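The records we work with from here on pair a chain with its fold. The integers have meaning only within a learned vocabulary of local backbone shapes. A complete example follows; check for yourself that the lines match position by position.

:::
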Amino acid sequence: MKTTLQFAGLFVVGAMALAACGDDSTSGGGGTGGATGGGGEAGSTSTAGGGQGGVGGDGGQGGDGGQGGMTNFPPPPEPLAQIDRMGRPAINTALSGTFVTANPDGSVDEVSTTPLRDAAQNAYNADGLPSNWDSNQPMFAANLAILDSLDTGVGGLSNADACGNQPGYAGGACAGAGTCYGLIATVLSDDVLWVDTAGVGCSAAAAPFGSGYLAVEFNALGVTNTGCGGRRPIDDVIDVTYGVVAGVPGMFGDNVAPPAGLHPELFPYLKAPQ
């Protein structure tokens, strides 16, 4: 009798273990497993000395799956103050408080110092409203008048001849930087890259000066060309910028050339892996 009861008890424990292993849920992983099945009834004794074990209860059903696999992203951060912008490279460096600052009426305020120059360039970078950008025209014009003299002595140019050969120079009886250099100051203060989709040389590796970067602006300043404009990776924007403001394209620059083959002429302008 003792042996029969021990056998039946072991069978019940085994049935309970099987019910627990069957506690699975969907791939979501969020549900709760069903209740464990009950044990079978103990077997009755027999004259042969052995009892027949009861049938174990059915295992519980798995719980409904939760919404597993979904990621709860945090809300986007609040926008912070703008500290930089990039339309035309080098314009801010060349014209924002480089030599002088200026008042909104076009009068020269004072000779620029490092703190004044830094403040002017930081204000330029922080200004994200295109409607405000024309406020830079007086300062740009004042500095353009100084940069126009850079080619004095080049090819025998006198200072009088060098001051006035900048693209867009008003000429004639213009008086003061605001009038003489107003056109190019207006063009350059509109800090966006212009592209002529009908232009040529957009991917040419050896395009003439001014057919890439600032090509559209050159047309606005009276220098006719058929370039597509924009900014290609192969364009040396520093050399182009200083060539324009000095009035001698290709004459002034940083004397830094890119490594050969760094910018192939066709899109996506990436050199092959090395």
